[in-house]
Amino acid sequence: MTVNASWYLTLAAILFTIGSVGMLVRRNILVMFMCIELMLNAANLTFVTFSRVLNDIGGQISVFFVLIVAAAEVVVGLAIIVAIYRRRVGATADDQHLLKG
Amino acid sequence: MAGWIATLVVLASFIVTVLVFASVAGEPASSRLHVENWFTWLSSGQLSIGVGIQVDPLSLTMAMFITGISTLIHCYSVGYMEHDAQFSKFFVYLNLFVFSMLMLVLGENLLITFLGWEGVGVCSYFLVAFWFTRPSAASAGKKAMIYNRVGDGGFLIALFLLIDKTHSLTFTTIFSRLSQLSSADLIAVSLLLFVGAAGKSAQLPLFPWLADAMEGPTPVSALIHAATMVTAGVYLMCRVSPILHLAPDAGHVIAWIGVATAFIAATIGCAQTDIKKVLAYSTVSQLGYMFLAVGCGAYDAAIFLMLTHAFYKALLFLGSGSVIHAMDDEQDIKKMGALRKVMPLTSATFFIGWLSIAGVPPFSGFWAKGDVLSNAWVVSPALWAVGAFTAILTAYYMGRQYLLVFLGDPRWKETGEGSLHPHDAGWQMSMPLIVLAVLASFGGLINLPFGSHLTFLDSWLSPDVGSSLLHNTDSTLQLWLFGIADAVFAIGGASMALALWRNYVNRPALEPRFLSMAWFLDASIDRFIARPSSALALFSATIVDRQIIDGAVNGVAGLFKVSASKLRRVQTGYVRSYALAIIAGLVIMVAYFMIRSGL
């Protein structure tokens, strides 16, 4: 049994599903944040897989972009989360519905 | 001071005009047309309209009599308006009027003429409403303005038609391109210009404003609403005589409207009791005669009547101004009487005015009216008959006015409690009366119908209107017959007045309400045009504007408001619902692409 591309893709799909389901069902902002990271990395894994299969360096370059964006997002996102936790301890995402129309 | 400056300026322009006249008259008849184009005002495609003046026998005649009469009336106004608080303003308006009138007659194209036309209209408004604190004067001014707008509509459409067909508004160019107009176009242009002329010159059905315009100061009535401005329509018709010449059907319409106006206004004049309203309706009537002449293709007769009418009607108005002045602003002829003894000069000059307008030989009106009537006979004896009957009425109503004002008992002594001491006015007011009386007496000399060496006016005008005239060569016998008939009508009408009004002041049978109310024309226009228009305007304001137009605008805004208030519930503020929406969108997109690629 060889580990071919479809294994990687299946793993990526599972990771992405875990991430998206976690995003939808969890209320803790920090956990939701981690789920986003999980989805981003699932996408990265797909990129790398196809880069290897197709022998194209473009996929790996895209991963760099995604990593940079993810890093920037972590900086901003964590700062916001820390700011929120300072104001109200233990708040969940549903308590932050100030944008309700 | 202001009055004398204004008078001297107009006198100077009169002198200049006479000098120009002398030099133009020295040239051969064929080269008396001078067009001075100063600059191009607007140019668009083939159309190019310049600013300039045209000097030819017709415009010179007009310019000369306008400046001449204006000088006299300015001089008279210095005396008449002496005690008015707005003395300077009055002369500013009067001078502005003379300027506009000269622009009207001297313009080398129809647009310049139209500018002058509107200029005299606005001056007329200012001067009719001069005593604007009186509500009647203010509304009379508005009425004059609105009636004239109706006429101006016709004038403007005629201009557009001419621009469309001939690509020009310059008189000389239009006349050289008349072959580009179909006969329907010619009739349309003629009649539309006539609508304009009917507004300005108070012809049926647009004449009621002129009677109300008597609210203005009397010199204004004399200058604007008798001698000059109201004849602008006649001038316009004569100016475009080459167009009218090619549209004889339009000529018939004009002739019939003219003679009908002359007749109706004369009957109304028989029943008026305001000294100035009698004169106002007689002006309308005389203008009707001028349009009769125009419609019959006798443009030189129209100008002849216009000139003599300017003399005797200005005289009559200035005379009535003297009377009003002396009677302490009383205008009701029933409250006058026996002024002959205390105002001999006014009485004598007014008497000359009466004989002249009545057409008693040898005063000027006899020659001018005779010229018009004999031309009307050539076109249609029916026109002549109405005109001749109107001539009897003219002599009658003017006689009635003269008798009630200057003869009979001094009825003003009863009402004035002896405080009135009527007398002739100072020299500023008397001098114009004398000059005009002389002109009214001998004005006929400019165009005596005895051979071509005596028809000075006809030969002088022939370069302008000669080619458009309907040729009318009366034999000597006809000439004498017409002359005798006219004289009989005039003297008959005058003696009728004498017989009926010598010993009476009130004769209700001769002053039926139908006539004193001006055939109810004013009331009908109010009932059938003004009130429905007001109702329509009210309907537009309250229903169309407020409910339909505002309703549409507010309805669109309301629609967005309601839909937005429903739609904003989508924004829950819960991150999970946004995430769900994103996932749902993702699923839909993936499904779409999968279906499209056939998976």
Descriptive account of the structure:
The complex is a heterodimer of chains A (101) and B (599). With 101 residues, chain A is mainly α. Chain A has a domain at 27-91. Chain A has three helices and no strands. In chain A, α1 runs antiparallel to α2 and α2 runs antiparallel to α3. The radius of gyration of chain A is 17 Å and the shape is elongated. The termini of chain A are far apart. The model of chain A has no long low-confidence stretch (mean pLDDT 87). In chain B, a hairpin with a 2-residue loop joins β1 and β2. A two-stranded antiparallel ribbon of chain B has the order 1-2. Chain B is mainly alpha-helical and 599 residues long. The relative contact order of chain B is 0.08. Chain B is built from 25 helices and two strands. Chain B has two domains: 2-528, no CATH class; 532-596, no CATH class. The mean pLDDT of chain B is 88. Chain B starts with a helix and ends with a helix. Chain B is 72% helix and 3% strand. The chains are: A mainly alpha (101), B mainly alpha (599).
